[in-house]
Design goal:
mainly beta, Jelly Rolls, 2 domains, 9-stranded antiparallel beta sheet, 19 strands, about 10% helix, rod-shaped
């Protein structure tokens, strides 16, 4: 049998170590530690003109043999302990059910940079995202190049000054202008960095949009790099990107919606792409009912304008931290 040194309550269970009333460490009961026996029929001591006095035989609780503060591991009262367990269990279930989504949303939102600088960066799209292929697009990875003339009856040329696109500060992208070239890259692999022209300028509707680019270090880029067209002036809200990977001599086309990038044409091999660090010229011709895509003067594919932003502007795209040099960005109307 054990006894509480504070409240003197006894417990027949020798496996119990703490008092269930006040949490004190139980002691092994001895004959000396047991409270004095009290006879229940013993008369109370009273006085005629006073309140009932406490019995003179009341025994004060014995003090513990050590003179120390309660141990930090002492058990809390039973009811309080159960309450905390239930609270922790409920919080754990809530975290499992909805906590991951909240954190995911915060991470994605933190990658967006859509201030007046007209820049943006976003995470790599997850595998298995919904894709859409327009009429006449080829998604089987074969070469669809067709040699054609680079001439056009659009002769009103508007050159874009890329030196004005340099951003002095950005959390997600690097930009610089040197020797007539605009250098651009995302700061992290697995992300792409996009710049778009301001509203009411450099519109790509009914225009031939052209840019020359090169992969400075012949770096790997599974996301690619290239020309943005029919874009919302706030990047990555609505628009297209015509992208190449010169190292693998492949191209693709994607369209953007908020926090999402979907394939219009999946990665497709093309001999029209010059390999490695060589310069490649991309051109998008917006025509009635269709959009023609050219690489170095060669027509490689045609799509329909199903997603473009009305009055969309031109932009540039660089993915996977590859340093890309752009020049000669212009529109012909």
């Amino acid at each position: 049998m054990k006894i509480c040194p504070r409240c003197r309550k006894t417990y027949p269970d020798d496996n119990l170590n703490f008092c269930l009333e006040d949490g004190s460490v139980l002691e092994q009961a001895t004959s000396e530690a047991m409270p004095a026996t009290v006879m229940m029929n013993e008369p109370r001591i009273t006085e005629p003109t006073r309140q009932v006095q406490t019995p003179q035989y009341q025994v004060q609780p014995a003090q513990p043999q050590w003179n120390t503060a309660p141990q930090p591991y002492s058990m809390q009262p039973k009811k309080s302990s159960k309450t905390w367990i239930w609270v922790l269990l409920i919080l754990g279930v809530l975290a499992l059910l909805c906590g991951g989504g909240v954190v995911g949303l915060f991470i994605v939102g933190s990658q967006m940079e859509v201030a007046n600088a007209n820049t943006s960066t976003t995470p790599t799209p997850k595998k298995g995202s919904t894709t859409s292929s327009p009429t006449n697009s080829k998604t089987n990875g074969t070469n669809t190049s067709t040699t054609t003339s680079n001439t056009s009856d659009r002769t009103d040329v508007e050159k874009v000054d890329l030196s004005e696109w340099v951003r002095t500060t950005s959390l997600y992208g690097n930009t610089e202008f040197s020797n007539g070239e605009f250098f651009m890259s995302s700061k992290q692999k697995g992300f792409y960095y996009v710049l778009a022209a301001p509203a009411d300028t450099d519109q790509t509707e009914n225009a031939n949009t052209t840019v020359t680019l090169r992969n400075v270090d012949n770096a790997d880029s599974r996301l690619g790099y290239g020309l943005v067209f029919h874009s919302n002036p706030t990047p990555l809200q609505q628009g297209y990107a015509f992208l190449i990977d010169s190292k693998k001599q492949k191209y693709r086309v994607v369209h953007h919606s908020p926090q999402k990038e979907d394939a219009v044409i999946t990665w497709t091999k093309s001999d029209a792409i010059k390999p490695g660090t060589e310069e490649n010229t991309l051109e998008v011709r917006d025509l009635p009912g269709k959009i023609e895509l050219y690489i170095n003067g060669t027509l490689v594919n045609t799509i329909k304008n199903d997603y473009g932003y009305s009055g969309g502007v031109v932009g540039l795209y660089s993915g996977d931290a590859a340093k890309i040099a752009f020049k000669d960005l212009e529109l012909r109307k």
